[in-house]
Write a structure and sequence with these properties.
Mean pLDDT: 84
Number of helices: 6
Structural class: alpha+beta
Strand order of the largest sheet: 1-2-3-5-4
CATH architecture of one domain: Orthogonal Bundle
Shape: globular
Largest sheet: 5 strands, antiparallel
Order of helices and strands: EEEHHHEEEEHEEEEHH
CATH superfamily of one domain: Transferase(Phosphotransferase) domain 1
Helix content: 25-40%
CATH class of one domain: Mainly Alpha
Strand content: 15-25%
Number of strands: 11
């Protein structure tokens, strides 16, 4: 089993946490930075909070600490193969009642944590998933006290760094598919560049290759997205060859 990072201050000590504010606002969640301190040690964590789908009133959302409402709507294709055990719960989700929306919020939170744990165990370069936290999850903050790591689309990489980043990304895609799942929302916006390494983030839409009817469709889109981005920057890529290789790995399950 891949060991827990030695920088993490764990729950078995009496640590202090301070919320340092909002880091990122996305379609379905917002990310806040937390500093955890114990004695003379400290570490930075990212708290990803999912916005409740059953709430949209600005005042109520602000009271919960969110800047805006959930805007990720067309998620049914990502949920294929993820059914609720109780039939009444599944019906509530199918009908998108307020109760169903609450169930979905909890399901997406737990699903992303599970996917990141699987990725971490497979050796994929992802922020370490610390665990659940209320309406979201805690994970490693990628960056330092001067700021967060830039997304790949914002990083100013030279030719050598671009080649390095693409090679690392391909290796990570092999590990992901080798672990049995597809990111399903991969692009230069969901990749970080930090200390000469590519980091994969944002896994709520990840799907299992054995249960999702759309897994290969998502895999193809992921490969096309990243290969197109690197190709436009002069990096030699072979989209079809990479996709065929990854499909072969996925079909081994």
């Amino acid at each position: 089993m891949r060991p827990q990072p030695d920088w993490l201050i764990t729950d078995d000590v009496d640590y202090v946490e301070v919320d340092l504010g909002n880091l990122k606002t996305g379609k379905e969640a917002e990310v806040f930075v937390i500093e955890r301190t114990y004695g003379d040690r400290s570490c930075l964590l990212a708290h990803k909070r999912y916005r409740p789908r059953a709430v949209s009133h600005r005042g109520e959302l602000a009271g919960l600490g969110f800047q805006r409402a959930n805007s990720f709507m067309n998620d049914h294709v990502y949920r294929d193969g993820r059914k609720f055990a109780k039939s009444r719960d599944q019906r509530a989700v199918d009908r998108m009642t307020n109760y169903g929306k609450e169930l979905l919020t909890g399901r997406w939170t737990g699903h992303e944590l599970e996917m990141m744990q699987r990725a971490w165990e497979a050796g994929v370069n992802v922020p370490y998933p610390v665990g659940p936290r209320g309406d979201g999850m805690l994970m490693q903050f990628v960056g330092d006290d001067q700021g967060a790591a830039p997304r790949l689309v914002q990083a100013r990489l030279g030719r050598v760094e671009l080649e390095q980043a693409f090679g690392q990304l391909v290796d990570n895609l092999r590990l992901l598919v080798g672990a049995g799942f597809v990111h399903a929302d991969l692009s230069a916006y969901n990749l970080l560049w930090w200390r000469e390494q590519v980091w994969l983030i944002d896994f709520p839409q990840a799907v299992d290759v054995t249960t999702s009817l759309h897994a290969f469709e998502f895999l193809h889109r992921d490969v096309v997205n990243v290969c197109t981005w690197f190709g436009r920057r002069g990096i030699e890529v072979n989209t079809d060859e990479l996709y065929t290789e990854l499909v072969g790995m996925a079909c081994a399950f």
